[in-house]
Write a structure and sequence with these properties.
Jelly Rolls, mainly beta, 0% helix, 8-stranded antiparallel sheet
């Protein structure tokens, strides 16, 4: 395994991130767009990490694996389908258990560093 260093992800220009396209399940006329850089992982592994950015808009969360993330820019909220709502701003960290379904409301472009993993991950 190779170590990967991403210097200063909070100050990296958006243009230096990959365009990941529009969100797949927008809610309303403003369609948020995603940008990012995957630092580790692939479709056939149980762990992925990287930097993720999203422009304003409202949309349904699609990640089914557990996720830990730390927000380094912006402001948003997440409304879980169970009725729980959290307000998130730069500097906040959030853990989403597997199958956390709900709606994102991105009020100001957000950027986060994240780790997505399968709940079947075991440690030696």
């Amino acid at each position: 395994m190779t170590m990967t260093l991403f210097k200063a992800p909070a100050s990296t220009p958006s243009a230096d991130l990959e365009d990941w396209g529009p969100v797949t399940q927008p809610v309303g006329p403003l369609v948020a767009r995603l940008r990012g850089r995957k630092l580790a992982g692939s479709d056939d592994v149980v762990i992925e990490s990287g930097v993720w950015e999203c422009s304003p808009g409202v949309w349904r969360r699609q990640v089914t694996k557990a996720e830990f993330c730390h927000f380094i820019a912006g402001r948003c909220s997440f409304a879980h389908d169970d009725g729980t709502r959290i307000e998130i701003a730069a500097g906040d960290s959030v853990y989403f258990p597997a199958n956390s379904r709900g709606t994102w409301d991105i009020k100001e472009t957000v950027r986060k560093v994240y780790l997505i993993y399968s709940s079947t991950v075991t440690t030696p």
